[in-house]
């Protein structure tokens, strides 16, 4: 008998038993927090998983399979013009959908192979900071102003921090530039414009399917007009997706037609049977995703089509559990608030208001410094900050946390130190915290 193994089993049994034994079931605060956890989890499942997360996984899969890593890296290598290198590096995060730790292997590889320090740092920061899915969730859940501020802040941060790092270590960069690392030419399987068409068609479906009702009651506004006809617009882009599946991915038109008919039929049936307007759009989206998955998984003309869906599944396996953990933690600790619903968590609002309430430089610094050392799995920062805002966190510190937290973490710092040394790591982390602090302060002063 393995005594050590048996002892671990006994220890886990004792821990679980102790937790269950001492559960404060009769405590009002605890029971309210449990209710908040379930309420927030239910709301996320109904409002965000099907219409937002599932399409986004397929978008991430397009980049993973149809765009080669070499084709991305060559745009900010040693021989690339500075304006182009920083532009590409600063927006790269929008197509990567990675966390602060997942970005590290890519950063390490391009940095060690000779990429400039500035573009490499811009890539390192932007990778986890501005994923399409995180920006969409931020705008949808925390407000359009916060989504725009996070996007602008993350892009500008990556460029400024990269330029400052390159200037501070300009002597080392001069030596690296003289070495003139050459990236090999990369031949794409299909023209980039075709891949871009396929990619942006999926993005358009995601955007318009999640188009929310404007806060203004002006029914004559352009934004309200889009909201009114958003499903017709989404359907139009769905037809373009069908065209892309046939002409670009070379999937049999009979399969695409069958999938389209199933999706359209399910939409009519859902609207006729399901009275709740929240649930009716979910049915055709689920049917459409199932149809897309089946026709790509069983397509024998191009192995990349099968890999596309498998890649989307890998993203789902990686992100969904972490998001679920984030939602549960946020609900239990910070409560649930959406629409007219407001249920408190176990952390009193007074604590949050004291630490990160208002918009002082100290509260913004506390938010950015704390966020820099915390680990945020992809997307978990959104429900956590939503709970913090409901508990009294100021909008400025919330933005500071969004700009510092997802891109940094203690594990991230330790790996960066191994790649580029202690001094560069300290400078990089300090720049992120300082810029996040002042950006949050300015944002909080405006909004």
What's the layout of helices and strands?
Elements: H1 3-21, H2 28-66, H3 69-73, H4 82-91, H5 103-112, H6 117-129, H7 132-142, H8 144-168, H9 170-179, H10 192-209, H11 222-228, H12 230-247, H13 253-273, H14 282-297, H15 303-334, E1 336-338, E2 341-343, H16 349-356, H17 361-373, H18 381-390, H19 395-404, H20 410-420, H21 422-446
Antiparallel strand pairs: 1-2
Helix pairs in contact: 2-7, 2-10, 2-14, 2-15, 4-6, 4-8, 5-6, 5-20, 6-8, 7-8, 7-18, 8-19, 8-21, 10-12, 12-13, 13-14, 14-15, 15-18, 17-19, 17-21, 18-19, 19-21, 20-21
Describe what this molecule looks like in 3D.
This protein is mostly helical and 447 residues long. 74% of the residues lie in helices and 1% in strands. The protein has 21 helices and two strands. It has helices spanning 3-21, 28-66, 69-73, 82-91, 103-112, 117-129, 132-142, 144-168, 170-179, 192-209, 222-228, 230-247, 253-273, 282-297, 303-334, 349-356, 361-373, 381-390, 395-404, 410-420, 422-446; strands spanning 336-338, 341-343. A two-stranded antiparallel sheet has the order 1-2. Strand 1 (336-338) and strand 2 (341-343) form a beta hairpin. Helix 5 (103-112) runs parallel beside helix 20, helix 10 packs antiparallel against helix 12 (230-247) and helix 17 (361-373) runs parallel beside helix 19. The model has no long low-confidence stretch (mean pLDDT 83).
